[in-house]
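re: the backbone from monday

yeah here it is again, tokenized this time
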């Protein structure tokens, strides 16, 4: 079911935190140098796996759910150790491999029955290898890396956080789903607030999972940059909405996790650092 208006007003951070996130600090913060993400190196070993399912993930079909059956590749499944890791794909007739963040959660420590599939949220850009992946059918075979790549989100760095701010835009919600549905929420007992920005509700993935995420303790703040006239929630861009809210923050007890557009991640990083949050407590999966 699609959201039609804003959820109830959410108190993102506990009242005992005593530092005000200031717009002035955002304006005066010096830009932090940010290198462009470097794609993980393509693997030298590949595995062949069938597509388990393919279906639209959004009302406008700009994003697709793609699931791979990896039941024949126990080693590959076991290599998924952290939310935010990637898998390489080599598709028929595609000029180059692509890598996609795994949307399904890694197995819980000590799990006796790990999942036999990986899920992905794939942006369907016409003429690209990702679009070819969205056009496949169940049973079609694809070549994928023999193990996952990337360090994922190093959540040990914010293990002591009492509040976690999560920011995602577009298909950047994919590894965030992996995080939310992993043991992270239960293990850390933190107050988690998710700012999720897209153009409109027709481009917002995982709406059917929001109730479950909120039940786990994740407070969701949808942000639409081009909503229709019926939308009564937050408008604009994630970084601007966060700055306007001016939440009370105690930097020493806060962690942040970012995934999405480069401009968003850079601007959010600047405002958090300007208000005292150490860069070591701001996580990305690159």
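seq for it, each position gets an aa:
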């Amino acid at each position: 079911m699609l959201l039609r208006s804003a959820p109830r007003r959410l108190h993102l951070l506990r009242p005992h935190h005593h530092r005000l996130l200031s717009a002035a600090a955002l304006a005066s913060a010096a830009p932090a140098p940010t290198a462009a993400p470097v794609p993980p190196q393509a693997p030298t070993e590949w595995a062949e796996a069938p597509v388990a399912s393919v279906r639209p993930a959004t009302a406008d079909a700009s994003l697709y759910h793609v699931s791979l059956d990896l039941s024949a590749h126990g080693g590959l499944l076991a290599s998924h150790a952290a939310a935010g890791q990637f898998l390489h794909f080599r598709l028929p007739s595609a000029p180059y491999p692509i890598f996609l963040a795994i949307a399904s959660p890694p197995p819980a420590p000590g799990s006796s029955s790990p999942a036999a599939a990986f899920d992905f949220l794939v942006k369907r850009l016409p003429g690209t290898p990702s679009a070819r992946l969205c056009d496949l059918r169940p049973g079609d075979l694809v070549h994928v890396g023999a193990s996952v790549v990337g360090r994922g989100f190093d959540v040990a760095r914010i293990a002591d956080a009492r509040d976690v701010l999560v920011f995602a835009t577009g298909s950047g919600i994919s590894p965030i789903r992996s995080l939310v549905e992993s043991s992270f929420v239960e293990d850390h007992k933190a107050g988690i607030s998710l700012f999720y920005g897209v153009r409109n509700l027709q481009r917002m993935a995982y709406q059917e999972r929001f109730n479950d995420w909120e039940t786990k303790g994740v407070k969701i703040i949808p942000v639409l940059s081009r909503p229709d006239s019926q939308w009564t929630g937050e408008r604009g861009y994630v970084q601007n909405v966060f700055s306007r809210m001016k939440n009370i923050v105690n930097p020493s007890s806060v962690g942040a996790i970012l995934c999405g557009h480069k401009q968003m991640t850079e601007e959010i990083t600047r405002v958090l650092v300007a208000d005292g949050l150490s860069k070591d407590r701001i996580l990305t999966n690159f």
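Helices lie at 23-28, 74-78, 129-134, 173-180, 184-188, 210-216, 238-245, 262-274. Confidence is low (pLDDT under 50) at residues 6-36.
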